[in-house]
């Protein structure tokens, strides 16, 4: 029979163009965890030749280390795309230059990863460009290209649930207690935690971020608590854990729901006693660390199913903040879009672009499963390929195809047209606190959530503004 065995037909194969054996072995091992088989080409000529082989015809993606072709990386990408137009190409590089990202994408790259890339981010990028069920290219989330601002003013939005979360976070930032932030992937949890650290009394102390999803479960204890030599096979040296590195400062644990039950219990004991015990150690030591943790899955659901330790949940849940998905605050899409386009326009190789009302309506009609991160990625990709001065509905062809031709109507913020009511229905003046709260809500909406500008226009300091958000009870609307 000429047909391939079923298992071989379904195999996902990635070609790695790289001349470093050590990196080749590492990426091969990482990809294998997610069911990928890797074939390695040490140079451009070999890679092009391999496209015509039996394995090359079954490729699902190409990983290209920019170091191999050097300055000719974009030319090689273009050559590979001319031979296999539908094959996604991801470029690995040590350069964080957005200009290189722009040039690589214009040459045909689907994504651009800055080394060292975490295993989780690498596999997320591969899954994004090869998922068959979802539209590729335009709507596939890109790896972060633009450094995020790290203060509360960078958190754009006027939706009541979103402003409530920011007000709660700003109040919690001033304390020392642990904080749990819940929300779907891409809603901005890590950015909010960085802003909280920057506004906290520990702002000048160490900040450590651990993405638990990118660490093999058997290695998490060692990463968090450290280990002693000989504590397990391969532990040749002493390793300092993230808790010790963060002593006096803040430790961010991303995706706390990835912890095994045993590690959950160990973490709960450490938080209870304040003492960290490295793996294989007969001693412990006291640390002063504030935990900010995220959870993509609702913690209550994990507790109900017995998948999360109740004692650990209690210690982490003194402050619980929920970031709403973008589909629940579509009125914020125009402000977010203009904010992202302004930042994108500052990047080398890209222009400052406006956006038409029809394009905004199209963006607002989509449900954004990847949330704010996906919106930024889509705008970045559209800006890369835009030849004019403005994005239009035609700049998002896959989105138009998915949603069909319809009149979406103008996009309006939930706060547009809101005035201040001075009187109650019986003709009496409303309490001053209620009027003041409405003025603050209106100002936040008018200035699109830029809290420094809101405070300046209201003639008060930012700290005073955040205190008023709490004192006036603007926890459900702002």
Secondary structure: elements and pairs:
Elements: H1 6-10, E1 12-17, H2 21-33, E2 36-41, H3 44-50, H4 54-57, E3 59-65, H5 73-83, E4 89-93, H6 98-107, E5 111-114, H7 119-130, H8 160-173, E6 179-182, H9 189-198, E7 207-211, H10 220-225, H11 242-245, E8 250-254, H12 261-273, E9 275-276, E10 285-286, E11 290-295, H13 299-304, H14 310-316, E12 319-322, H15 333-345, E13 354-355, H16 357-365, H17 371-385, E14 390-391, H18 397-403, H19 432-446, H20 451-458, H21 462-471
Parallel strand pairs: 1-2, 1-3, 3-4, 4-5, 6-11, 6-12, 7-8, 8-11, 13-14
Antiparallel strand pairs: 9-10
Give a brief outline of the structure:
The protein has helices at residues 6-10, 21-33, 44-50, 54-57, 73-83, 98-107, 119-130, 160-173, 189-198, 220-225, 242-245, 261-273, 299-304, 310-316, 333-345, 357-365, 371-385, 397-403, 432-446, 451-458, 462-471; strands at 12-17, 36-41, 59-65, 89-93, 111-114, 179-182, 207-211, 250-254, 275-276, 285-286, 290-295, 319-322, 354-355, 390-391.
């Amino acid at each position: 029979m000429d047909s391939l065995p079923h298992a071989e037909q379904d195999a996902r194969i990635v070609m790695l163009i790289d001349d470093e054996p050590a990196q080749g072995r590492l990426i091969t091992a990482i990809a294998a965890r997610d069911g990928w088989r890797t074939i390695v080409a040490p140079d451009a000529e070999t890679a092009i030749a391999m496209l015509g082989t039996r394995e090359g015809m079954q490729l699902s993606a190409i990983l290209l280390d920019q170091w191999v072709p050097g300055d000719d990386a974009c030319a090689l990408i273009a050559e590979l795309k001319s031979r296999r137009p539908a094959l996604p190409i991801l470029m690995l590089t040590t350069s964080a230059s957005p200009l290189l990202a722009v040039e690589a994408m214009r040459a045909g790259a689907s994504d651009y990863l800055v080394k060292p890339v975490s295993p989780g981010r690498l596999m997320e990028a591969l899954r994004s460009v090869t998922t068959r069920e979802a539209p590729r290219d335009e709507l596939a989330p890109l790896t972060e290209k633009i450094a995020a601002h790290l203060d509360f003013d960078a958190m754009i939005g006027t939706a009541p649930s979103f402003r409530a979360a920011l007000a709660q976070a700003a109040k919690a930032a001033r304390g020392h207690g642990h904080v749990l932030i819940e929300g779907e992937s891409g809603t901005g949890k890590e950015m909010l935690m960085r802003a909280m650290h920057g506004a906290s009394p520990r702002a000048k102390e160490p900040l450590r971020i651990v993405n638990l999803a990118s660490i093999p479960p058997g290695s998490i204890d060692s990463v968090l608590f450290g280990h002693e030599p000989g504590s397990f096979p391969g532990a040749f040296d002493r390793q300092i854990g993230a808790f010790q590195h963060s002593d006096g400062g803040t430790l961010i644990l991303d995706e706390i729901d990835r912890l095994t039950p045993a590690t959950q219990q160990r973490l709960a004991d450490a938080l209870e006693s304040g003492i960290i015990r490295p793996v294989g150690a007969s001693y412990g030591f006291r640390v002063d660390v504030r935990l900010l943790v995220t959870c993509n899955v609702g913690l209550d659901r994990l507790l109900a199913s017995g998948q999360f330790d109740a004692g650990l949940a209690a210690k982490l849940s003194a402050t619980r903040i929920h970031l709403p998905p973008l589909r629940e605050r579509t009125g914020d899409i125009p402000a977010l879009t203009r904010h992202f386009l302004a930042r994108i326009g500052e990047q080398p190789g890209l222009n400052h672009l406006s956006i038409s009302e029809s394009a905004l309506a199209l963006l607002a009609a989509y449900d954004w499963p990847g949330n704010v991160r996906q919106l930024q990625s889509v705008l970045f990709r559209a800006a890369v390929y835009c030849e004019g001065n403005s994005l239009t509905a035609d700049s998002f062809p896959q989105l138009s195809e998915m949603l069909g031709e319809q009149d979406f109507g103008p996009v309006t913020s939930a706060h547009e047209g809101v005035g201040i009511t001075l009187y109650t229905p019986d003709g009496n003046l409303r309490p001053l606190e209620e009027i003041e709260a409405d003025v603050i809500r209106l100002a936040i909406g008018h200035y699109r959530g830029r809290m420094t500008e809101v405070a300046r226009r209201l003639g008060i300091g930012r700290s005073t503004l955040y205190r008023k958000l709490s004192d006036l009870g603007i926890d459900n609307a702002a």
